[in-house]
Design a protein that fits this description.
With about 220 residues, the protein is mainly alpha-helical. About 35% of the residues lie in helices and about 5% in strands. The protein has a domain of about 100 residues: Hemocyanin, N-terminal domain, CATH 1.20.1370. Strand 2 and strand 3 form a beta hairpin. Helix 5 crosses helix 7 and helix 6 packs antiparallel against helix 7.
């Protein structure tokens, strides 16, 4: 059960807050933002490296654009982005080959793999991960010893407008009400520590006793 896991993993609170907020429950594809899961290393023309996470913010009215890659693949095949009308206007390089409706020569007889013995592509050491100095002892760190699980979700909650808070709390309560009461009471402690209004809102939505939940912090047990 997800709430059993989340109640024992307070580091999840920020993501749980996002998940049940407007960001995690968009009103259709037109309002769906996108966020890269990974951090990418980008190198510019000055050989400067920057670590980047992508945030794609919607401009309601751009829904056809969101769905078009799938429509292109269905109608034209995987090489749809080679058509002049779809082709990127900035220089780009890939090793993509073959596929339906390939019409650009398919790179001729050159190879597209590495290593190779046909004077084909080779790794460029200029784009490898940058070295960094490391010293001292390496060990597994117990992140529960000095972690702050509550400032970030609390700040996020306080940034929300009143109506957005109501939707967040309503979404949480609609899901959390299906968990055993002991798990509800444990999870509510995390909401209270993030922001008293956050905790009180969920308590009221669940119909729990405020006194019981606010005085039960000694019941919190963190999982390893």
């Amino acid at each position: 059960m997800m709430w059993d896991f989340w109640s024992l993993s307070p580091e999840s609170l920020h993501q749980v807050t996002i998940l049940f907020s407007d960001r995690g429950t968009p009103d259709g594809y037109r309002h769906m933002d996108g966020f890269s899961s990974h951090t990418f290393s980008l190198i510019n023309a000055k050989n400067e490296l920057f670590y980047v996470k992508w945030h794609f913010k919607t401009k309601p009215g751009q829904a056809r654009l969101i769905s078009y890659p799938d429509a292109h693949r269905y109608r034209l095949g995987v090489n749809y982005d080679s058509l002049p009308v779809n082709k990127p206007q900035c220089p780009f390089h890939t090793y993509n080959r073959d596929g339906a409706m390939r019409f650009d020569g398919n790179s001729g007889a050159s190879v597209n793999y590495e290593p190779n013995s046909f004077d084909g592509p080779t790794q460029d050491p200029a784009f490898r991960e940058r070295p960094r100095p490391v010293s001292g002892t390496v060990d597994r760190h117990n992140h529960r010893l000095d972690a702050d699980y509550y400032t970030q979700p609390g700040n996020l909650f306080r940034l929300m407008k009143p109506d957005a808070r109501e939707r967040l709390i309503g979404n949480i309560a609609a899901s959390l009400k299906n968990a055993p009461q002991r798990i509800q009471e444990l999870q509510v402690q995390h909401f209270f520590q993030a922001d008293p209004a956050y905790g009180a809102g969920v308590v009221n939505a669940l119909g729990l006793s405020t006194a019981k939940t606010t005085n039960s912090e000694d019941r919190f047990v963190a999982a390893d």
